[in-house]
Amino acid sequence: MPEPERRIALLIDADNAPAAKIDVILAEVARHGAANVRRAYGNWKSPHLKGWEAVLHEYAIRPIQQFAYSSGKNASDMAMVIDAMDLLYARNLDAFAIVSSDADFTPLVMRLLTDGLKVYGFGERKTPAPFVNACSQFIYLEALGAAHADAEPGTAPARPRNAKELRGDKRLVQMLRRAVDSAAGDDGWANLGLVGHQIGNQASFDPRNYGYRKLSDLIEASELFELRRDNQIVWIRERPKRRAGKAAQAAPA
């Protein structure tokens, strides 16, 4: 008997998200489950949200009106947080998908995680690191590619980072090495599926943010690991040079 489909609440901060990306966002959410709740928050009297108004009915998204009570304050953020907590306490969801480039939602993400729910984040590359890192998985909208031919400039898919750029990202390298070390057997080889699981438990990560469709492509491009394909299974281990150096350090004097 197949497992029941995961129920996801899609909450959109319309003030801080491009409407032109909604189709690719929904396609990505569909990979994890069904978006049973779809809400977009903002002051719908604002001309800034005209782009969102055009897609609300097409994608069955419920607009939540929130007036700006004070100049310079975003009341939509508070309304979205209150709704998220109401949905959390209803106990009929498995995950949340939050669309925003605003770091103010970081505490909300951390609260949802403490109840064991997954949180999938979507935002532009300008999104502050605390919000990105807090999510179970965060995907830059630019990495999902341009949703429409008339999308805003700068929405092309992310350029694949070369080996030098990948190795220069200390956080990424440390995360990959820890995951491979944790999943490796006595021979040093680790199953790619287990490596991906370890990475998912460590931090928010998606290879598309680095310009690669699959984790194996990113790992191979880094030139830090060896890859071996056995039918449908991919195995990974550190390159011999580094492994030899580690063995020499561990050898008794």
Polypeptide structure, described:
It is built from ten helices and nine strands. Mean pLDDT is 84; it is low at 146-156. Helix 7 crosses helix 8. The chain has two domains: 7-144, 5'-nuclease (Rossmann fold, 3-Layer(aba) Sandwich), CATH 3.40.50; 163-250, LOTUS domain-like (Nucleotidyltransferase, domain 5), CATH 3.30.420.610. The strands form two sheets. The protein has a six-stranded parallel β-sheet, sandwiched between helices. Strands 7-9-8 form a three-stranded antiparallel β-sheet. It is α/β, with parallel strands linked by helices and 253 residues long. InterPro entries: LOTUS-like, NYN, OST-HTH/LOTUS_dom. GO terms for molecular function: RNA nuclease activity. Residues 168-240 form the HTH OST-type domain.
Key terms for this structure?
Rossmann fold; 253 residues; three-stranded antiparallel β-sheet; OST-HTH/LOTUS_dom; Nucleotidyltransferase, domain 5; LOTUS-like; NYN
Summed up:
By secondary structure, the protein is α/β, with parallel strands linked by helices.
